[in-house]
Amino acid sequence: MNTTIPSNTQPTTNPTMKWTIGILSVVVPLLVAILLSLNNESKIDFGFNTRILPHINAVFNSITSLCLIAGFFAIKNKNIKLHRGLMMTAFTLSSLFLISYVIYHASVPSTKFGQEGLIYGIYLFILISHILLSIVVVPLVLWAIYFAWTGRIESHKKIVKWTFPIWTYVAITGVIVYFMISPYYQPL
Question: What InterPro entries does this protein's entry cite (predicted)?
Answer without folding.
Answer: DUF420
